[in-house]
Amino acid sequence: MDDYISIALPKGRLGEKVYSLFDSIGYGCPEILEQNRRLIFTDEANGVRYFWSKPSDVAIYVERGAADVGVVGRDILLEYEPDVYELCDLGFGKCRMCVAGLRGARFDSGRALRVATKFPHIASGYYASRSRDIDLIKLNGSIEIAPVLGMSDVIVDIVETGKTLRENGLEVFEEIVPISARFVANKASFKFKNAKIEEMLSRLGSAMEVSE
Predict the structure, then answer these.
(1) Neighbour tally for 205: CB within 10 Å
(2) Which helix (DSSP H) or strand (DSSP E) does residue 191 occupy?
(3) Neighbour tally for 106: CB within 10 Å
């Protein structure tokens, strides 16, 4: 397996799009499309091994060397700061990390702002840069309900279309950072499998140029 490139893919629509891209540039693995419960898929002809992972775990697999490369959202890279090489922006999976709250709401600057989020590191860093005291509320599920119930003043979360916000009477107050899918590599793999990873990176670059 040392000659293979091991690729961690995020489960869901993003991962399916990523696999289609890799397949189109010569790294196909037909077994991955079969209906089964297998966790690892290998294609000897193309020298690749794939596995699906929870999106937030992709960077961990890459950082720890279980995968040579992977695709992960920029939100994960900013939140967890894994020790990996970020090689390129794939240009899809685009969305925004935003501050949102009840439409038209105003807040007392004399007290800590109550912020509900799945991304405590990003939220803390953002408000620290603005010298704003916050009361951070870490949630794991649908956080849009927190301001509606009066538990938080605002939320910090990923916004794609904004439909969920609008349907719950919320609006975007500020955009923190744009988010998209990033191609990342394990640092040791990038050194010892450099030629293979650079070839993959080159093919990805050519494919993205064609799609623009």
Answers:
(1) 14
(2) helix 187-192
(3) 8
HSE-CB of 54 using CA atoms within 13 angstroms: 3
- From the list 154, 176, 141, the residue with the least C-alpha distance to 102 is 154
Give the pair of three-digit tokens for residue 118. Answer: 């799945």
pLDDT tens column, 22-63: 999 999 998 888 877 888 999 999 999 999 999 999 999 999
- How many helices (H) and strands (E) the chain has is answered by 8, 11
> What integer is the mean pLDDT of 61-71?
97
Smallest CA-to-CA distance from 155 within 168, 146, 166 is with: 146
What are residue 156's phi and psi, to 5 degrees? -120, 115
Residue 4 contacts by C-beta under 8 Å, 6 or more apart in sequence? Answer: 42, 47, 48, 49
- Going 171 to 176 to 178 to 179, the CA torsion angle's sign is negative
pTM of the shown model? 0.91
Residue in 186, 185, 198, 183 with CA at minimum distance from that of residue 21: 183
The H or E element containing residue 62 is helix 58-63
Closest among 63, 64, 36 to 52, alpha carbons compared: 36
Q: 3-state class of 17 per DSSP?
A: helix
SS3 199: helix
